[in-house]
């Protein structure tokens, strides 16, 4: 009886205290002698220069095991190896138990994990950006470079590099670029609260006495990201390598080089890239060649290796099925296998590796790749439709006939305005 009266007295005291304080304050309840029923706390950290996602989580006082759980739940959704300084991570706890993780990638995207009934549930919180367009044009200066002149005019370095990389497929800048050559770029800017989140060149024009004139258009493929790239108006891709992508959609789970292994938790060298995929997704040969290996081991699972004409070798691990065998000759972009989860893995994905002709493991993504050298069929028709809208936008912005705010509204009408 005494304990019951004591509990009732404590509840009465807490109730009295809560009425005597600010009505907006929250006072936790104590029931049956338990700890406070719901105490929420949070911790946050900003990524340091040169720091990885794993190290940032450890600075939030998570154990290596807890950090790996979070990483393995997020890595299929976001490229964690590409974290940048000042990106923010916030953890929320209830009674000292972690129940929410938020990764603020930028002002546009927030990646969230919520613990619901013992299961981590992912969601993407995305804000609608303001879309603006800007034209940058100029003349190549004496003793300068195109990338130098673009950045001098205020173009973000990554976007300036994208312009140069597209044009290098048609122009030899070392021998053909001359002072006095003219260039013009239409940039698509995404903004949140007035801050530029991303910059993409969607139209490029370069005209020189030795180089001639070239125009490029950026095509966005809605069904397969590997086709999204710069093309000439006839659909020819602007890329210098004949290598194709091994999957229809490219999302890197883990990059080439040293990393924290997702299973062992130890630092190790990763000899390829892990690409997100579902069991059964088709795997394609990145170039023609001969199958020199079709095997299995407890770490890589089912594997294939193809020797190409330049003596390089491509490797495909963790497969569920293989449609070619050792000794077979395969064509570029031929389906050779299906994505699986065989071997030592945390989930389905494709490990894609590459050896140069000396046998050294190299970063596969350093070799320029593309889904197709030229668009055709429905993709070519869609590309032409996008090109027309880019031309409309270019004309309107260049002649100052409409402001960017009206351009955004015009986008709601399929027959007028611009794309994207």
Order of helices and strands: HEHHEEEEEHHHEEEEEEEEEEEEEEEEHH
Q: Approximately how much helix is present in the residues?
A: 10-25%
| CATH fold type of the largest domain | Glucose Permease (Domain IIA)
Mean pLDDT across residues: 82
**Main β-sheet description:** 10 strands, antiparallel
Structural class by sheet pairing and helices: alpha+beta
Task: Summarize the helices and strands and which ones pair or pack.
Layout: H1 2-20, E1 40-46, H2 53-58, H3 64-74, E2 88-94, E3 97-104, E4 109-116, E5 119-126, E6 130-139, H4 146-152, H5 157-167, H6 173-176, E7 182-192, E8 195-208, E9 212-219, E10 229-231, E11 252-254, E12 257-260, E13 267-270, E14 272-276, E15 282-284, E16 289-297, E17 301-308, E18 313-322, E19 329-330, E20 335-339, E21 349-355, E22 361-362, H7 377-398, H8 404-410
Helix pairs in contact: 4-5
Overview of this structure, please?
The chain has 420 residues and is α+β, with helices and mostly antiparallel strands. The chain folds into four domains: 1-38, no CATH class; 39-127, Nuclear Transport Factor 2, Chain: A, CATH 3.10.450; 130-239, Nuclear Transport Factor 2, Chain: A (Roll), CATH 3.10.450.350; 252-366, Glucose Permease (Domain IIA) (Distorted Sandwich), CATH 2.70.70.10. The protein is built from eight helices and 22 strands. Strands 11, 14, 15, 16, 17, 18, 19, 20, 21 and 22 form a ten-stranded antiparallel beta sheet that branches. The N and C termini lie far apart (72 Å).
Q: In a nutshell, what does this entry contain?
A:
It is built from eight helices and 22 strands. The chain has helices at 2-20, 53-58, 64-74, 146-152, 157-167, 173-176, 377-398, 404-410, and strands spanning 40-46, 88-94, 97-104, 109-116, 119-126, 130-139, 182-192, 195-208, 212-219, 229-231, 252-254, 257-260, 267-270, 272-276, 282-284, 289-297, 301-308, 313-322, 329-330, 335-339, 349-355, 361-362.
């Amino acid at each position: 009886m005494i304990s019951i009266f004591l509990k009732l007295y404590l509840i009465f005291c807490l109730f009295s205290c809560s009425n005597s304080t600010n009505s907006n304050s929250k006072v936790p309840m104590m029931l049956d002698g338990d700890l406070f029923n719901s105490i929420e706390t949070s911790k946050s950290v900003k990524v340091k220069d040169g720091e990885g996602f794993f190290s940032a989580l450890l600075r939030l006082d998570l154990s290596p095991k807890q950090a790996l759980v979070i990483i393995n739940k997020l890595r299929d959704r976001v490229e964690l190896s590409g974290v940048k300084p000042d990106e923010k991570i916030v953890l929320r706890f209830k009674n000292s138990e972690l129940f929410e993780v938020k990764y603020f990638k930028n002002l546009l995207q927030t990646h969230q994990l919520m613990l619901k009934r013992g299961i981590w549930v992912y969601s993407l919180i995305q804000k609608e950006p303001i879309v603006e367009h800007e034209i940058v044009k100029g003349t190549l200066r004496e003793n300068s470079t195109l990338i130098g002149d673009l950045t001098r005019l205020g173009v973000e370095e990554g976007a300036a590099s994208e312009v140069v990389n597209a044009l290098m497929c048609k122009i030899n800048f070392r021998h053909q670029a001359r002072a006095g050559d003219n260039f013009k770029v239409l940039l698509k800017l995404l903004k949140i609260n007035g801050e530029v989140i991303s910059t993409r060149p969607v139209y490029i024009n370069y005209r020189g006495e030795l180089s001639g004139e070239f125009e490029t258009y950026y095509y966005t493929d809605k069904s397969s990201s590997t086709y999204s790239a710069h093309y000439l108006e006839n659909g020819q891709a602007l890329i210098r390598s004949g290598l194709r992508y091994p999957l229809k959609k490219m999302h890197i789970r883990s990059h080439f080089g040293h990393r924290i292994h997702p299973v062992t938790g130890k630092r190790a060298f990763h000899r390829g890239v892990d690409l997100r995929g579902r069991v059964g997704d088709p795997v394609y040969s990145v170039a023609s060649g001969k199958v020199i290996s079709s095997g299995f081991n407890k770490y890589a699972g089912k594997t294939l290796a193809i020797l190409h004409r330049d003596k390089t070798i491509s490797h495909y691990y963790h497969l569920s099925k293989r449609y070619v065998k050792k000794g077979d000759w395969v064509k570029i972009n031929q389906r050779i296998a299906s994505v699986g989860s065989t071997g030592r893995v945390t989930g389905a994905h494709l490990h894609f590796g590459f050896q140069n002709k000396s046998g050294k493991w190299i970063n596969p993504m350093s070799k320029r790749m593309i889904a197709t050298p030229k668009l055709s069929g429905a993709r070519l028709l869609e590309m032409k439709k996008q090109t027309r809208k880019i031309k409309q936008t270019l004309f309107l912005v260049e002649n100052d006939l409409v402001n960017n705010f009206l351009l955004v509204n015009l986008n709601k009408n399929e027959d007028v305005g611009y794309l994207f």
